[in-house]
Amino acid sequence: MAASMSDPEQLPEILALIDILDGLESLIEHAPNEDVEDILEEAWLQISDTFPEDFKAATQHDAGAEGLRRYLKVKTFFENPSERSISAADLEEYYRSYTDTEDEESTDFFYPE
Q1: What is the pTM of this model?
Q2: Dist CA 83 CA 61 (whole Å)
Q3: How confident is the chain (113 residues) per 10-residue block, as mean pLDDT?
Q4: Is residue 66 a contact partner of residue 107, using CB atoms and an 8 Å limit?
Q5: What is the full DSSP assignment across 29-54?
């Protein structure tokens, strides 16, 4: 995906990708064995790698589908606050997820070193 997140035409595609990742997360949680889990995690990585760099960097500490949706909500609000609204609770949750380093293990497979 070469276009930037600020390209409004990319929004439907990004939302569809997040939905796919959400489904993969559910499948990973219910994988019958470690081999299947590894395959699903690899698929998650390959799909998430199609996001623009700023999107990947901003969600590195909260990389699950919910974190990606949260980042998208915040980003679209700041790009055009007169057309998009966001609650104080959403902003607080985004800030908390962005600054919380205690739960980094949960995103280890999203961003292996």
Answers
A1: 0.71
A2: 28
A3: 56 91 94 96 90 77 81 87 86 80 52 50
A4: no
A5: HT-SSHHHHHHHHHHHHHHHTTS-HH
